[in-house]
Amino acid sequence: MPGSHSHRQLGIVSVALITYFNVSGGPWGSEPLLAACGPLVGILAVGIFPWVWCLPLALTFAELFTAFPTDGSFCKWVGVAFGRPMGFQVGFWSWTSGVIDNAIYPCLIVDTLLALTTLEDKDDAAHDNNGVAWNIFALRAVFALLFMLPTLSSIKVVGQTLLVLGVLIFLPFTVLVAYAVPLIKPANWVVIRKDRDWGRLLSSLYWN
């Protein structure tokens, strides 16, 4: 029907970015993947893992979202399967973990900016006798508030904000990749470590 999708606020790119920032937040983590068992095993693992784990999981979520076309996602699914109290528990603890996890990123941003400054004594600038300096704490709070503001407007603004953040995050890595391409040595890709750490490899795959 014409106009049946006119209520949609997000496009494919915005949904993809929301998903990306929700589960990743940046192209980090490749170092332990390659270091755990060597580049060859790491590259093969990155190529195989999405098909044996991520794709079935995505199809499961797609099936559940189709079966329950309502707000609430996994809270609704768990509530239907195990009762509303368990659905509430899932939602509450998911929210709690999100609050704790999201509190990390303003700290990382401020600490990174502090590390990039030309201050002679960064430790003294970041800490006082009682712990973290108040100016650093305030700066972290400012970043947290800035990231919160789009969510107070609309989901469309959130998508647009994440588009800008996505460009800002990927641009430096694009420059690094362009710089590194002439330095590539394909012979290193087939190296396998003798002391392979499978646990580290699997944990890095799941984390990424």
| Main sheet attributes: strand count, strand direction, barrel closure | 2 strands, antiparallel
Low-confidence stretches: none
Measured as a percent range, the helix fraction is over 70%
pLDDT averaged over residues: 83
Approximate strand percentage:
under 5%
Q: Which structural class do you get from the secondary structure elements?
A: mainly alpha
What is the overall silhouette?
A: globular
Q: What order do the strands of the largest sheet run in, or round the barrel if closed?
A: 1-2
Order of helices and strands: HHHHHHHEEHHH
Radius of gyration: 21 Å
Oligomer: single chain
Keywords: Cell membrane, Membrane, Transmembrane, Transmembrane helix, Transport
GO molecular function: polyamine transmembrane transporter activity
Main location: membrane
Membrane topology: Multi-pass membrane protein
Structure characterization notes:
The chain crosses the membrane at residues 41-62, 131-150, 162-184. This is Amino acid permease/ SLC12A domain-containing protein. One of its GO terms (molecular function) is polyamine transmembrane transporter activity. The protein is mainly α. It contains 10 helices and 2 strands, in the order αααααααββααα. The protein has helices at 12-23, 30-37, 39-67, 74-82, 84-102, 104-116, 122-126, 134-148, 155-180, 198-207; strands at 127-128, 131-132. It has a two-stranded antiparallel ribbon with strand order 1-2. The chain is globular, with a radius of gyration of 21 Å. The mean pLDDT is 83.
